[in-house]
Amino acid sequence: MPSYYGLGLGRIAGDVTVIQEGKSQKVGLVIQNITTFISGFVLAFVKGWKMTLVLLSALPLLAAVGALMTRFVTQNTSGGQGAYASAGGVADEVLSSIKTVYAFGSQKREILRYNANLDVAQRAGVKRSIFEGLGLGLMMMIVYFTYALGFWYGSRLIFDHTMTSEQVLNVIISLMLGAMSLGTASPYMSSISSAQGAAAKVYEIIERQSRIDPSADEGRRIDYSNPAKSLQGYIEFQDVSFTYPCRPDVPILKNFSLQVKPGQTVALVGSSGSGKSTCVQLLERFYDPTKGTVSIDGIDLKEFNIKDLRRSIGLEGQEPVLFGTKVEQACKLANAHDFISALPDRYDTLVGEKGALLSGGQKQRIAIARALIKNPRILLLHEATSALDTESEGIVQDALDKAARDKTTIVIAHRLSTIKNADLIVVMQQGTTVESGTHSELIAQEGVYAGLVRTQELRNLMNMHRY
Q: For 343, left (φ over 0), alpha (ψ -120 to 50), or beta?
C-alpha cells in the first residue's frame, strides 16, 4: 500500500492534468459546435418543418447513446486516475527511500508493485477506449441512417409536390451541417466527461472537512499577556483510550492516566508500540482520544483554539525536519552556534530540502533550537538527542535541562541515561502504565525499568569493548 501522501499527490497531479485537458479549449469548441448544430436545425425548421420533425426522431437515440457513453467514460476515467495515483504513490515512496530499496535488493519487487497499479490503469483505459469507440460509432451510424431517412422522405415529398427539391436540399444540408458539428463535438464532450470524473475526486479532497481544523478561529484563546488566559502547564490524561483511525481494531492506549504538574519534567519510557508517541500526538491534538480526556490546567484540549494551543507547545520530533530556508533561528542554547559559525554563509546558509545539506546531528540541534526559540510553556521532546554524538549529547542535554526550567516538559527517550534527572519516569507497556517514580526509586524496585537500564548499560559496555 503506497503512502497516503504519495497517493494523494499522485491523485491530485493526475486529476488536475485531466481537468486541464478537458476544460481548456475544448469547452469553447463544444459550445461552437453545439451552436452550429442548433443553427442548422433552426434553419431546417424554417425551410421545411415536416421533414425536420421526421429527422429529429433520431435525436432521442443520439441523446441516449451520448449519455451512456458519458457515464461509462466518467466511471473508467475515475478508476484509471485512482490507479495512476496509486502508482504515483508507489513511485514517491520508492524514490524517497531508494537507498533502502537497493540495500534490500528489492528493485524487482517494487517494479512489480508499480506495474501492478499501471495494469489496473491500463485495463481502465482500454475499457474507456472501447466505450468511446462504440459510443462514437453508434452515434455516427445513427447520423448516417438519418441521412438515408432524409433522402428517402425528401424524395417522397418531392414526388407528392409538398416540397420542392431546393427546399429538401436546404433541409438536408442544414441537418448534415448540424449533425457533423455534433459529431465533431462528441470527442470533446468525452474529454469534458473525463474532466468531470476527475474533478469530482479533486473536489472531494478539497471539500473534505477535518474533525480537527487547525485553521479554525473558534475555541478558547490563549494570551500570555493576560494571566487569566495564559497556561500554567498542568497536564492530565484521564482514563484515555485511543486507536488510530487507520487501525481501529488495534488499541494503542488503554485507560491511560497521567498527571504532570507545572514545571515538572516527566519521562515516558517503554518499548516500541507502547503508546509513548501517541501521548505526544494527543497533546498536540493531532488526534482526539477515543475515550477519556486530555486536559491542560483542567480544561479539555477540545475547548482550546488549536493554533494558540500549538503555539504554546514546543515540539522536537523523533526525526528532525527542516525546511529549505536559512539558518536564522538557531542559538547557543542547543549547542548549534559553533557549527553554524563555521558554515560558508553562517546564519544565511541554506540548509537544503529537508535539511539535506546538514548532518543528522546538526539538523537535530537546529530543530531543538527551533523548539526552544519561542519560549513555550510546555516542551515535548521526542528523542531530542537521538542523532547526537556523546559529546554533543551531553552539552545539548545540559542546555535542555536549563531550558526546561519553569516549563512543563514531557520527554520520550530510549537513551535512559538522558532522563535520570527527570522528576517522574513513567514506564509504559501496551498502552498502560506499569511503573512510575524517580530514577532511584525505580532502580530500587528492581522492576521493568531497572531491567531496561541494565540491558542498555550492558549494550553500551559491549560496544565500548568492540571498538
A: beta
